[in-house]
Amino acid sequence: MKLLGKNSLLYWLKYPFGIYTVGFTLMSIWILGLMSVYAFTNSTNQFTSVDHWKTENHNQQANSETVQFHYPFTKMVLATENSVEGISLAFLGLASLSFILITVFKILNELSKDNFFTENAVKNFKILGFGLIAFGSIHLAIDLFTSSQKFDITPPLIFIITGLIFIFLKEIFAKGRKIQEENDLTI
């Protein structure tokens, strides 16, 4: 069985991936809505709860507070630190994962066709690359503005480097598209 093109492995795998993408995106919209309501009202309901934790580090007790956002129809919970940084990064994480899944599904849809050096494939690689760079930059800005003493540069750096890789892939696909157009004109 071939990997790319019509009736390929990729062609048939795009359907379960698409179903997963739609389900994850709808659930993320629900959680993003709960996060927005909690961020502005700071009130809990049956889908939003706050838990208090006591931790001991080297004979010191510290209290921390987490907020939990409950997914509908399941027992899954998204828990994050009850702070501006925690809620902002959780919001950014869900938004970026939904964006990545939707854009990758569009790319898979283009690659499952016989002619995959299309303008849409090039455009989707470009959107994914610049989107990842934007999410990495926003993540870095949130870290810098909310906790300048302690932050990890690794997650934003991974987003930015991955975005640059996808921009590089966009250039390869653009070059392939140009070669294919030239080849079609000479035949």
UniProtKB/TrEMBL annotation:
| Pfam families reported for this sequence | DUF2975
Q: In its keyword annotation, does this UniProt entry include Nucleotide-binding?
A: no
Q: Tell me what this protein is called.
A: DUF2975 domain-containing protein
Could you tell me the keywords of this UniProt record? Membrane, Transmembrane, Transmembrane helix
For whether the record's keyword set contains Transmembrane helix, the answer is yes
InterPro entries per the UniProt record, alphabetical? DUF2975 (IPR021354)
> Where, by residue number, does the polypeptide cross the bilayer?
12-40, 86-107, 127-147, 153-169
